[in-house]
Amino acid sequence: MSRLRARLSRLPLRVRLVAGFSAASLVVLVAAGAFVYWRVEFALDRGLDTELAQASRTVAALVTPDGQVSDRVAADATGVAWQVMDGDGTVLAHGGPAGAASLLSSRQLDRVTSTPRTFDVGDFLPISPQPYRLHVVRLPSTPHLYLLVGVRRDHRDEALRELLGQLALAGIGALLVTALVGERLARAALRPVERYRRRAAQIADGDMSLRLDVPPMRDDEITRLGHTFNDMLSTLEGALDRERQFVTEASHELRTPITLLTSRVQLALRRSRSPEEHERVLSELKVDLDRLAELSEQLLQVGRASGPHPAGHCDLVTVTSRTINERRLADPAHAGDLTASLTDRRLAVPLADFEAERVITNLLDNATAHGSPPVAVSLDEPSPGWARLTVTDAGSGIPTTLLATATHRFARAEEARARPGSGLGLSLVDALVTEADGELRLCHDGRHASTGRPAAPRCAHGPEMTVTVLLPTVLLPTEPAGAERTTRASAVDP
Predict the structure, then answer these.
(1) Which of 295, 451, 461, 468 is the most exposed place for a label (fewest CB within 10 A)?
(2) Which of 432, 450, 433 is nearest to 441 (CA)?
(3) Mean pLDDT of 356-381
(4) How far apart are CA 173 and CA 345, in angstroms?
(5) Per-residue pLDDT tens over the stretch 273-328
(6) Could you check whether 2-159 and 314-491 share the same CATH topology?
(7) Cβ contact 313:280 at 8 Å
(8) Domain segments of the chain: what residues?
(9) pLDDT of residue 489
(10) pTM over 0.70
(11) Which is nearest to 168 in space by CA: 41, 39, 37, 43?
């Protein structure tokens, strides 16, 4: 059975559809033909049985106790064949078309009890020379005698054979028609699929600008498949464009430190140097290599942030407090330059712990590298369902011309190119916040730029540079569904 199923699965879909449609039609036609045949056969047999029952009552009244018939003329007038037999099947009297030979075997006769029985003798197919329908009754006055009356079934069998032939011809014709119609319908239904396949083959050859031709006024399974496929192609094309842009920008940014390293090595090889000079050159090369390694690590982080977002959540208050304390412990001389005001309740956001730490670290790195102290961090819940993280510094801020594109990869102001960094920090933050269905806002001197999902709570800032991250909150497993959501500000101790 499994081998047959495997063979059928290798057939073309159109052939399988037509075969299935034809098989279903065959079952319906056979069932309908069987029902019609049964109803006609039942009607014909009922007519014969009525005639036999009337003749049996007439002849039974004429049978004497010794097995003879008192009035043969009246018995023959019924128009049926009749026989009177004893218990062992011997014919005592007969009339009509019936001869002296018993029309019924002794075994069949033994099956007759006080209830009359009906038997069909003679084959339906092939045609029997003497087909009879027999009605046998045990005579109540003389229980050892049996009365058999019968009529020939020639007309009945001929009518049924004619009906059977007509049903077979009609069924074969109907099956051919349904197979032809099914083949046409399957071909018409699969024609758009074949058209989509050819267009997909063209797209696979490299022409990503092509799209499937979807009829605008139709809405069925095929058109919905076409729309979904076109949406997928648009998404893939956008992803490929972003990857090409990323590779181009990364190549551009990597070219500078690599060129610088090559130049330093060439200069170092121009003349002989003392060990002290070699150590100095190696120290300079190590600085450049460290910058190159940092840039590569940031590129990897941006690539991971643009990929599938891991499921999970973290407490943003805990991660923010921990990150700030670690930075203060790492640089105690400037611990006072970093202030924080955090809510004292848990705020669970749809970011993994390391992702939330990366967001906070990048924002603080940007504020430290490109801003001026003091740097203030604020975390609160401006409205139910939202967490707001704000980082503010007293620096000159992002230029107005760069504010809208500051989250793009490698976007840097001219004056910032001399400072450490690669222009990937805000891009990484934007990717993580957007994947978490949040919003990133950049505000400076009354001007604002926003990326991600527009969040409900709005805020107004002064002239200082402010970066705001708004993230949707999720219900923690230990937090009851109807819990009150209250917040109050608390300072993180230096």
Answers:
(1) 461
(2) 450
(3) 86
(4) 79
(5) 788 877 887 887 887 787 677 667 666 665 555 555 555 789 999 999 998 998 88
(6) no
(7) no
(8) 2-159, 245-305, 314-491
(9) 37
(10) no
(11) 37
H helices of 61-153, in order, are 72-76, 106-110
The token pair at 100 is 């002296």
Q: How confident is the model at residue 384 (pLDDT cuts 50, 70, 90)?
A: confident
Q: Are strands 338-343 and 489-491 parallel, antiparallel or unpaired?
A: antiparallel
**One-letter identity of residue 301:** Q
State how far the Cα of 127 lies from the Cα of 258, in Å rounded to an integer: 101
Angle at 372 between CA 318 and CA 289, to 5 degrees: 80
pLDDT band at 59, cuts 50/70/90?
very high
Alpha-helical segments (H) within 68-220: 72-76, 106-110, 154-204
The rounded distance, in Å, linking the Cα atoms of 488 and 473 is 17
Q: Quick check: 428 and 301 in contact, CB under 8 A?
A: yes
Give dist(CA 266, CA 404) in Å, integer: 41
CA distance 53 to 450: 98
CATH assignment of 314-491, among 3.30.565.10, 3.30.559.30, 3.20.20.105, 2.60.40.10:
3.30.565.10
- What is the DSSP track for 118-166? EEEES-TTTTPSS-EEEEEEE-SSSTT-EEEEEEE-HHHHHHHHHHHHH
Read off the pLDDT of residues 354-366 as tens digits, 9 standing for 90 and up.
888 888 988 888 8
Place of tokens 């409900």: 456
pLDDT, residue 301, reads: 61
Tell me which architecture the domain covering 2-159 has in CATH.
2-Layer Sandwich (3.30)
150-197 pLDDT, tens digit each: 999 999 999 999 999 999 999 999 999 999 998 898 888 888 888 888
From its phi and psi, is residue 79 left (phi > 0), alpha (psi between -120 and 50) or beta? left
Return phi, psi of residue 201, to 5°: -65, -40
Q: Tokens representing 89? A: 């099947």
The CB density around residue 209, as the number of other CB atoms within 10 Å, is: 8
